[in-house]
Amino acid sequence: MVWECLSERSFGTYSNTENTIIAMPQDSETGRKGSEYGLTCGHKIIAALGGTPIRRGSNEFRLNGELLSLHCAHKGNGSVGVTYKMLERVDAVLAAFEQPDESYLILRLSQKQYKRNMQPTRSLGPSSGRVGKVGRVVFKSKGSVFKTVRT
Q1: pTM exceeding 0.85
Q2: Which of 48-52, 108-112, 120-124, 129-133 has the least mean pLDDT?
Q3: Separation in Å, CA 113 to CA 105, 135, 143
Q4: Which one of 50, 70, 80, 119 is separated from 125 by 20 to 30 angstroms, measured CA to CA?
Q5: Where are the beta strands (DSSP E) in 28-143?
Q6: Residue 111 placed within a domain
Q7: Tell me: the pLDDT tens digits for 73-95?
């Protein structure tokens, strides 16, 4: 038996006979919405932490003498991605994972820890070959809790 998962667009085909999920990559519209969410959410969290943003259109900021990069994940999204260029600049990566109560659990990995544990994005779009992803499980097991914030 095969099910097709539909939202606004077909997102993938799920097969229960092979226990596999075949998913199409993110399209430009969902990518744009994700980017907007990340910047908006990130700027709110950076302000709540008392950080100083570095530039518009980026979630890099200074806090307590460190250059940090903040990446937000909606409920159900288990990973964050950071460009390889950004990883060369920052001291650490903060991942803000949305919780069921709509607060954000912020976890921290040093730049070295992030690099050691990242996997290349599976995207076939513009981020292909430019972004490394790390999952929530790695942030929880190898990183540290930074703070919980409600935006």
Answers
A1: no
A2: 120-124
A3: 19, 12, 8
A4: 70
A5: 52-53, 60-63, 66-73, 79-83, 92-98, 104-110, 119-120, 131-135
A6: yes
A7: 988 888 998 889 999 999 999 99
